[in-house]
Specification:
Helix 10 crosses helix 13, helix 13 packs antiparallel against helix 14 and helix 14 crosses helix 16. It contains 17 helices and no strands. It is mainly α. The protein has a single domain, classed as Mitochondrial carrier domain (Mitochondrial carrier fold, Alpha/alpha barrel). It is a multi-pass membrane protein.
Length: 365
């Protein structure tokens, strides 16, 4: 199945030949790439990358690989940078009596563990979220193209919010499988004093005590936390970018400089991040409690926390996730600019749909 998907991605007309020339593959020319971009004003989709000034062809294997690399950088760097805040947030969630607030959490941690204590869990955070970023961003681009091919480009535009939601949910499903083992080690290091101080210590101990289940026991609540978060992250970001260019930015996206476009990216990312934090916070609290306590289930952890406990640590998480999401989108988009990758605009109406609506009198000329 995957091999047929790869071959379909390359079903494009050869260079310097008419559009009627038969492509060198069994599938018709309107394959994975062509169905997404046909009729749109995206140079990278209709001409060779070298002639368009881009480093790769849109929706090619190189394009998807670079998207994955951008995801590694955006998630790995940002999550590692906020480890101190994440540590305090996790401790507030699992022990609100001892860690009463963000400020108090920092004070108690510094008093007991010193400045180095604030960096606990940085290694599993870096490796875990780098793996997650690879799958999250890379597979999002893959599934967005694949689902567009399945429903057609006109439906993909009309129902683009659902497209963003479904593509991001599918990508995050796989991303969490990559993240779960490292997330288990991170939370254990941060919330169980004396258990382990490093990743090398934590993994053998978790395996010795709980077996392979110790790395994946929180996968379901992780899905409950991350899938809604990622759906909001991508769908809200895509639509916010579209709305900012339509109602806030005083000129079309094509007339904006790269730096101006990146400012819009950061703003849209922060707005999306605030909503992400609120939607996913209860499940995040359950994940923290579950990984702290051996043998507990998600339902037992939720009952023990109670409704009020599920929302503990929301303020630092809004600050953390808002900043994280904004920086992730900024790094991801900046990476695309630096690598000279195609960046198709969000919400671009297909030419075929525009002509249909004009013919029906539903669109102004």
């Amino acid at each position: 199945m995957f091999s047929s998907f790869i071959s379909k991605a390359f079903c494009q007309a050869p260079e310097n030949k008419s559009i009627d020339t038969e492509p060198k593959c069994e599938a018709p020319q309107r394959g994975l790439v062509q169905s997404l971009v046909a009729g749109r004003q995206i140079a990278a989709a209709s001409v060779a990358a070298a002639d368009s000034g881009y480093s790769c062809e849109f929706a090619s294997l190189q394009y998807f690989a670079l998207c994955g690399l951008g995801g590694i950088l955006s998630c790995g760097i940002t999550h590692t940078a906020v480890v101190p805040l994440d540590l305090v947030k996790c401790r507030i969630q699992v022990d609100p009596v001892k860690y009463k607030s963000v400020f108090n959490g920092f004070v108690v941690t510094l008093r007991e563990d010193g400045a180095r204590g604030l960096a606990k869990g940085w290694a599993p955070t870096f490796f875990g979220y780098s793996a997650q970023g690879l799958c999250k961003f890379g597979l999002y681009e893959v599934f967005k193209v694949l689902y567009t091919d399945l429903i057609g480009e006109e439906n993909a535009f009309l129902y683009r919010t659902w497209l963003y939601l479904s593509a991001s949910a599918t990508a995050e499903f796989f991303a969490d499988i990559a993240l779960s083992p490292m997330e288990a080690a991170k939370v254990k290091i941060q919330t169980s004093p004396g258990f382990a101080n490093t990743l090398r210590e934590a993994w053998p101990k978790i395996y010795a005590e709980e077996g392979i289940n110790g790395f994946y026991k929180s996968l379901v609540p992780l899905w409950m936390r991350q899938i809604p978060y990622t759906m909001m992250k991508f769908a809200c970001f895509e639509r916010t970018v579209e709305l900012l260019y339509k109602y806030v930015v005083p000129k079309p996206r094509a007339d904006c400089s790269k730096s101006e476009q990146l400012v819009v990216t950061f703003a849209a990312g922060y707005i999306a991040g605030v909503f992400c934090a609120i939607v996913s916070h209860p499940a995040d609290t359950v994940v923290s409690k579950l990984n702290q306590e051996k043998g507990s289930t998600a339902l037992e952890a939720a009952k023990k926390l109670g409704m009020a406990g599920l929302w503990k640590g929301l303020t630092p998480r809004i600050v953390m996730i808002g900043t994280l999401t904004a920086l992730q989108w900024f790094i991801y988009d900046a990476f695309k600019v630096y690598m000279r990758m195609p960046r198709p605009p969000s919400g671009e109406m297909p030419e075929s749909l525009r002509l249909k609506l004009e013919a029906q009198g539903q669109l102004k000329q």
